[in-house]
Amino acid sequence: xxxxxxxxxxxxxxxxxxxxxxxxxxxxxxxxxxxxxxxxxxxxxxxxxxxxxxxxxxxxxxxxxxxxxxxxxxxxxxxxxxxxxxxxxxxxxxxxxxxxxxxxxxxxxxxxxxxxxxxxxxxxxxxxxxxxxxxxxxxxxxxxxxxxxxxxxxxxxxxxxxxxxxxxxxxxxxxxxxxxxxxxxxxxxxxxxxxxxxxxxxxxxxxxxxxxxxxxxxxxxxxxxxxxxxxxxxxxxxxxxxxxxxxxxxxxxxxxxxxxxxxxxxxxxxxxxxxxxxxxxxxxxxxxxxxxxxxxxxxxxxxxxxxxxxxxxxxxxxxxxxxxxxxxxxxxxxxxxxxxxxxxxxxxxxxxxxxxxxxxxxxxxxxxxxxxxxxxxxxxxxxxxxxxxxxxxxxxxxxxxxxxxxxxxxxxxxxxxxxxxxxxxxxxxxxxxxxxxxxxxxxxxxxxxxxxxxxxxxxxxxxxxxxxxxxxxxxxxxxxxxxxxxxxxxxxxxxxxxxxxxxxxxxxxxxxxxxxxxxxxxxxxxxxxxxxxxxxxxxxxxxxxxxxxxxxxxxxxxxxxxxxxxxxxxxxxxxxxxxxxxxxxxxxxxxxxxxxxxxxxxxxxxxxxxxxxxxxxxxxxxxxxxxxxxxxxxxxxxxxxxxxxxxxxxxxxxxxxxxxxxxxxxxxxxxxxxxxx
Length: 677
Ligand code: GLC
Prior knowledge:
Elements: H1 3-41, H2 44-50, E1 52-55, H3 62-69, E2 75-77, H4 82-94, E3 103-106, H5 119-123, H6 128-143, E4 149-150, H7 174-189, E5 202-206, H8 225-232, H9 234-241, E6 246-249, E7 253-254, E8 257-258, H10 263-273, E9 279-281, H11 299-308, E10 314-315, H12 319-329, H13 335-351, H14 371-384, E11 386-390, E12 401-405, H15 431-438, E13 443-447, H16 461-469, E14 473-479, H17 500-508, E15 514-520, H18 527-532, E16 535-540, H19 546-554, E17 632-634, E18 638-639, E19 652-653, E20 656-658
Parallel strand pairs: 1-2, 1-10, 2-3, 3-4, 5-6, 6-9, 12-13, 12-14, 14-15, 15-16
Antiparallel strand pairs: 7-8, 11-16, 17-20, 18-19
This protein binds alpha-D-glucopyranose (GLC).
């Protein structure tokens, strides 16, 4: 078809697109018209009520009923009794003056009842579709009881394993956090937020929370603008462009300004640069936290600062319900500012279809743990568990007996990790349970040895050693309890807790082959322990289907394909450590380790480059590392051009050959670096 013939078609197509756009614009305009019509009717107190989010109070006392009837509350978090949700919604819709529906929110971070691997684990799958599926299933389970807003995905770049919340992120890489954050948003929201199984996503924590100094939670961050835009903002911009319905402020301050009161972030970038029209909710009490931050004099001042910095919804500071109306009347916050915040929360409620369908249908059958959910969770465990070492031991194909030992061998609650609120450990299948049920022909000699990961007392370890002696292979499940991972769970020492190392030494003394399976919420420094064993599988708190998924890998029903989403340090002193570190002016080379330095050496005789004398400059395992039961050969890489001009692309080609008998996936990493000219 020549250009000429194309023109009429372009005109027709353009016209049709324009018409469709006008039609589809109509519902959007229709929504904006409904928002304006409602806003005009609202009193200042009713507007403030919409900006007030409170936690479950454990029931529906008379004073709360009165608050709902007077429109003093706009949304709840952690109310999970469907009948209570229905009754609260009925009061808001049928007894309040304007009948504005409530939204019910929850931290559905990696599953509601069916628990998937923690996000750091899901990141190891590098599988957008699997992450999206997990989010979709989580939304179906949570929305069944009335939750329509989840405080997920957490897309904070995390480069420091001392920080407990590394568990909730997709690791250290901006691109991986971007891609998997968007996948989760798609899974939660679908392309129609009015779908009753859809949940509003929440891109959090905006922004830079993972840069908390020394890996201590809630701590200060210093992030230069160029690093903010290169490293920390891109996942959030992608989330905004992907239509994330809400954002959440972070607890940290950035260069002295708390996120909750940060006009540059919340207005200049989020609203003005990105044109974001969703809801910005505070973190729990983060408006009030500006007082100890030294940024607000008192709660009223905190309300003023937060409102004028663009925070829409106040989660659990009570700053807005107590002071915002007065601040407007005193002229310290304009009513226009309040109106904009109310528009955002009303828009969210319209987008969720809550004005048309405020009530849920009580589920007639169990919406949890469906076969589809459990299979997806199992696959997620398989694709999230990293094979770090294998000296000819795995997969186990002809063993007659195994010792299943260690504190994480039968820990249904702990294997679900952080933010597994309300998950039922009775529906969390452990490695011991899975091996017993799925491999009846293998004799299982079980003894935890240590009840949980922090136990220092070795008195029970003898039973585990006895089990090892009686078995062909030892399966040692080590790691970290769930309570040591997540928010406010930061560690200065990230080696194996308790007597796990001593237990391993005792197992090693039996001379049996040992497969160590680590189940934790962060990278753990365990170089010496890895030296002691024949194979290592590393799983970041894999959730309800830990046992079946890991058993699939151990016995060869599945092939490991996961790759580290975060660098594993040799020792805690290397932190923060990440793959895309700048070169510095003296990149590490001709490394001399401390013990190799001759006594009395000349001051500058061992070179002057960037590394630690007692660790060198390499991690234990690098970002992107992960083995398989097969190997892959990469042909030399070819480029379509050696020069990349503006707005051009270069095609990178490489043949990847699976060299052994196992059918397996792998992830090829292409890492580029811009040299700033
Ligand atoms: C917590 C977390 C945040 C969570 C919120 C509601 O403190 O920082 O991620 O969504 O409070 O539970």
